[in-house]
């Protein structure tokens, strides 16, 4: 009887697990960075944003990749920068001589210091970034402004699964530019699908590497998380109900057989 119950429970769990995996769905969550007020030109070290519906949070910090060879894919050292966010603009990076007046407080690869700005995003769970929306502004001293970007997801958990309170420092780190995936911009504001299905809790959004005319602010991010559909929960409950009913029936049958055996012994 114990073995039968064990088999019933195992089968029920396997069925419920299969239904859970097969019928999971994706939920889209939007972060808008254009309605959070404005920082000063001095910027901040970090800031934690809530999603539009309040269901998720992300911590943003600003950095700069020091690229001394902009004609080849190289390994860059990393410097700390300041994060800025502006009403009707979005997230930008303040590094070096950037100011609020010269337009270079965007996430850019322009200016006197070679390299590319980037923002590190620490989500409170694994997410897939579905799309990136950018606002582009003309920068002082740059003949043409483009909006080429790049991204990288920490799928290998190099940084682990940090909480929003974790203070990750990249200044002693290096990264090879080849780990980034490039997103081509059209030189104007707009939304780009990342075309990625990978999920991670830490993401980098950067200006394109080995270029000198790109700059943008992140206005919106749409992220996706896997969640079970309501039908999945209903089927799981139904499945466990069947398992429970089967267990009760087997117990009743076993009890009846035991009682019959006792009666037969008593009558013998």
Automatic annotation (TrEMBL):
Residues 226-250 form the Ice-binding protein C-terminal domain. Keywords: Membrane, Signal, Transmembrane, Transmembrane helix. The keyword Repeat does not apply. It comes from the Bacteria. The keyword Secreted does not apply. Residues 1-27 form the signal peptide. Pfam families: PEP-CTERM (PF07589). The chain crosses the membrane at residues 230-247. This is PEPxxWA-CTERM sorting domain-containing protein. It comes from Sphingomonas qilianensis.
């Amino acid at each position: 009887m114990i073995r039968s119950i064990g088999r019933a429970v195992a089968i029920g769990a396997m069925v419920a697990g299969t239904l859970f995996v097969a019928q999971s769905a994706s939920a889209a969550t939007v972060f808008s960075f254009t309605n959070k007020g404005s920082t000063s030109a001095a910027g901040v070290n970090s800031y934690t944003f809530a999603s539009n519906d309040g269901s998720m949070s992300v911590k943003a910090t600003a950095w700069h990749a020091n690229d001394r060879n902009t004609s080849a894919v190289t390994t860059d050292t990393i410097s700390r920068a300041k994060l800025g966010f502006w009403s009707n603009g979005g997230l930008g990076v303040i590094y070096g001589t950037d100011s609020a007046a010269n337009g270079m407080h965007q996430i850019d690869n322009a200016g006197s210091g070679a390299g590319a700005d980037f923002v590190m995003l620490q989500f409170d769970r694994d997410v897939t970034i579905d799309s990136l929306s950018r606002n582009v502004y003309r920068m002082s001293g740059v003949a043409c402004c483009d909006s080429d970007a790049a991204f990288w997801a920490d799928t290998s958990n190099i940084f682990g699964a940090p909480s929003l309170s974790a203070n990750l420092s990249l200044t002693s780190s290096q990264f090879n530019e080849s780990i980034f995936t490039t997103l081509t911009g059209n030189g104007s504001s707009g939304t780009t699908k990342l075309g990625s299905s990978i999920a991670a809790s830490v993401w980098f959004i950067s200006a394109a590497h080995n270029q000198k005319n790109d700059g943008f602010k992140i206005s919106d991010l749409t992220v996706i998380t896997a969640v079970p559909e309501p039908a999945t929960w209903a089927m799981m409950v139904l499945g466990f109900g069947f398992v429970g009913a089967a267990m009760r029936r087997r117990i009743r049958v076993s009890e009846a057989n035991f009682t019959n055996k006792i009666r037969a012994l008593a009558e013998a």
